[in-house]
C-alpha cells in the first residue's frame, strides 16, 4: 500500500515527466559552477530507475496474480463472462482512484476531453475485440495475434513517429517472439471472421498503447491522472457491449448466472487486483514504451505457463521449456541493448550541447553553422529516456 501511495504522488510523476535534455547535459557534462553535488545527482538517477523497476515489478506480480484468480473463476467456477468482468474491473479501478483523489494522493488535471473520450472508447474496443478474437479463433491463432502486436507497434512507430529501432533491438525482439511462439502456439486454424477480428484487435491495441504513451507526454499528465479520466469511458464501452459479447461467445446470460458466495469472493478479489493491473499498465507504458510493455507481457506469459505447471500441474512439454528459454534469451538481449543504447543517448546529447555552447562565442559562425537551430532542436527534443522509450534493465 505504501508502494502504491509513493507511485501515485504528483511530485514523483512530475519528476519522471519533466526530465529534459538540459538536465541530462547538466548531469553528464562537467561544469564547475554547478551547485548540486554528484551524490545528489546520483541519488536522483537511482530513484528514477528504481521507480521504473518498481512499476515493472508491480505489473508482473499483479498481472500473474489476476490471471491465476481469473483462471480459477472461469475454469473452476464456470464464470466465463470475461468482457463484462473487465468492465467491472474498470469501474472498481475508477472508484478506487476517486477515493485516492479524495484523499489527495494525486491531483486532478483535466485536459482535452475529446482526446480522453476517444482514447477511452478505443481502449475498451480493443479489449472487446481481443476477447472476440479468442472466441472465434483457435488458441494457437489467438497467441499468434498477440505476437503480432510487437511488430505492428514497431511498424506504426517507425512510419508515423519516425522512431528508429536498431538492428540489435530488432534481433532481440525476433528471438523473443520466436521463443514465445514455440512455447504457446499449437495449432493455426484459420477462418475469415476470426482473421478480420484478430486484425482489428491488433491494430486497435497498438494504437491504444501508443496513445497511452503519447498522451502522457503531450499533455504532461501522470499515468494516474490519465487512467482516472479515461476509466469511465472504458468501463461504459465494455459495460454496454460486454453482456452481448459474452452471450455471443458463451450462449449464456451474465445476469442469469447463479452467483454463489464463492463466485462473488473471487469476483471481488479479481476486481481488487485489477486496480493494480490497470494502474501499472499505464505507468509502465508511460515510463518506457508500448514495445517494452509488450515484451513485459510475454514475460508474464512465460511466468503463467511456469506457475501453471508448478502449482496447477498443467501439462508441460519440452517444447514449452525450449520456447520459454529462447524467449528469456530474447528478453535479456532486449534489456541489454536498450540499456546500452540508453547510456549512449545522454553522452550524445551532452556532446551536442557542448558543441552548441562553444559556437556561441562567435555569433556569425554560430549562424552559419546552424548552431542556434541545433540548440533549439536539442531543447525541444523529448527526454533521452522517453525518446528511446526502451527499458534500462
UniProtKB/TrEMBL annotation:
Cell location: Membrane
Residue intervals of the Sugar phosphate transporter domain: 62-335
Keywords: Membrane, Transmembrane, Transmembrane helix
Cellular component, GO annotation: membrane
Membrane topology: Multi-pass membrane protein
Record has Transmembrane helix as a keyword: yes
InterPro entries: EmrE-like, Sugar_P_trans_dom, TPT_transporter
Signal sequence annotation: none
Name of the molecule in the record: Sugar phosphate transporter domain-containing protein
Source species of the chain: Vitis rotundifolia (Muscadine grape)
Source lineage: Eukaryota, Viridiplantae, Streptophyta, Embryophyta, Tracheophyta
